[in-house]
Specification:
The chain is α/β, with parallel strands linked by helices and about 425 residues long. The chain has 14 helices and 12 strands. It binds glutamic acid.
């Protein structure tokens, strides 16, 4: 049966187009039912909200916010909340779609969602951020809930923001609902190990890739773009296990030291000093120069579309572990495959975050909390298992690792859709 492809939606932005290109390649390889393909190319629902707040100077400013639920076939939707000046509906939709594939790939009983507000949190006071978060939580209230859609953190949000979100929801319903959000402080139902989870997961996946390529991590050179929750934790753990982290960066630029950086000192310095180079721990470099440094392991852990058709030919790492969501464009993907660079795709490499978010939600629902050791062991098990299954599929299907990982996630969702049937 032929199915008509719908027109390009109004939120057709470069990031969404990128997510669609990746999806189309995997869907074709899976020989997916065209009805399922068409349904999965767009989100189940998307909400745009107006978020007016009073600024500290007395004026009222209106921000635009979003919550997009891409798929809820396997369970409640799950995904982070991004506060960034470039957030738009297309980007949030792409990120929601990636959440669906990610959760399915690693076997979580969850769907995919994402939220965000177009704002610059670095320029806002704590009080403004609190009002923004509380009003946003109120506006997306009709969509979220511990049994339907559970927000977590993402770029520009943190434990405090998740605490305000949880508190606002709880105030609306009249009792405490810890399971409404993840990435919360431990004191209100957060999980041990959640803060480190994404970076730790990147390390577990990198260890598996290094084994596969016979790279000795002791002394291996590492370059990391981004020094936030993902980049910093990955840098810290990798340097603890003997890697030499030679360059890191944040949105203001990066630093390079061929002898290796002292990550803990640099992190302490970065807390009060946004410009890393001012600490004189290494030479000044730009984010673009950083990506092209010769190294064993490159970890983009910032924003999307950093490795593109333009710079991919100059990337010289052996392992590319995608800590960020969507850091590599489809044009760059092909160039990297031709160069023989081993890719750990985002939906696997950074899946540690949502995995421990899932653990947090489960602990909240059962009111019973686990030890950190237990959490890290379960996390490792999931990531190593998914990595090995992905490797088997790359060989069986003769596809790159991104396509293999996508195929694993998409197949699970497609099977569930077909067996559930079309309503009504
Ligand atoms: N923002 C993270 C991601 O992109 C985690 C989302 C969550 O914990 O819900 O996977």
């Amino acid at each position: 049966m032929k199915i008509e492809r719908r027109e390009k939606p109004e939120f057709y932005t470069p990031t969404y187009e990128m997510a669609l290109k990746q999806f189309d390649i995997a869907a074709e390889k899976l020989n997916l039912d065209p009805n399922v393909t068409e349904r999965l190319r767009a989100p189940k629902r998307a909400l745009i909200v107006n978020v007016p707040i009073r600024m500290d100077n007395g004026t009222v400013k209106v921000f635009q916010g979003y919550r997009v639920q891409h798929s809820m076939v396997l369970g409640p939707a799950k995904g982070g909340t991004r506060y960034h000046q470039d957030v738009n509906l297309g980007e949030v939709t792409a990120l929601a779609m990636w959440m669906s594939w990610k959760s399915a790939l690693i076997g979580l009983p969850l769907g995919g969602a994402k939220g965000g507000i177009r704002c610059n949190p670095k320029e806002m006071s704590r009080a403004e951020l609190q009002r923004l978060t509380r009003r946003y939580a109120t506006e997306i209230f009709p969509l979220i809930g511990p049994e339907r859609d559970i927000p977590g953190p993402d770029v520009g949000t943190n434990e405090q923001i998740m605490a305000w979100l949880m508190d606002t929801y709880s105030m609306q319903v009249g009792y405490s609902v810890p399971g409404i959000a993840t990435g919360k402080p431990v004191s209100i139902g957060g999980s041990l190990g959640r803060f480190e989870a994404t970076g730790r997961g990147v390390v577990y996946a990198t260890e598996e890739a290094a084994k596969k390529l016979s790279i000795n991590l002791n002394g291996a050179s590492v370059v990391i773009q981004g020094f936030g929750n993902v980049g910093y934790v990955a840098a810290k753990i990798l340097s603890e296990i003997g890697c030499k982290v030679i360059a890191v960066s944040n949105s203001k630029g990066g630093i390079y030291n061929k002898n290796g950086l002292d990550i803990k000192r640099l992190y302490e310095f970065s807390k009060d000093n946004p410009v890393l180079s001012e600490g004189k721990y290494g030479d000044n470099i730009t984010n673009q120069e950083l990506l092209e440094l010769k190294c064993d392991i490159l970890i983009p852990a910032a924003l999307s579309a950093q490795i593109t058709g333009d710079n991919a030919k100059r990337i010289t790492c052996r392992i590319l572990a995608e800590g960020a969501n969507g850091p590599t464009t489809p044009e760059a993907d092909q160039i990297l495959i031709d160069k023989g660079i081993f890719l750990i795709p985002d939906i696997l490499a950074n899946s540690g975050g949502v995995t421990v978010s899932y653990f947090e939600w489960v602990q909240d629902l059962q009111n019973f909390f686990w030890k950190e050791k237990e959490i890290n062991e379960k996390l490792k098990d999931i990531i190593v298992g998914a990595f090995n299954n992905m490797m088997i599929l790359t060989e069986k299907e003769k596809v790159g690792s991104r396509t293999a990982a996508l195929m694993m996630g998409i197949k699970k969702i497609a099977e569930a859709m077909l067996i559930r049937g079309l309503y009504p």
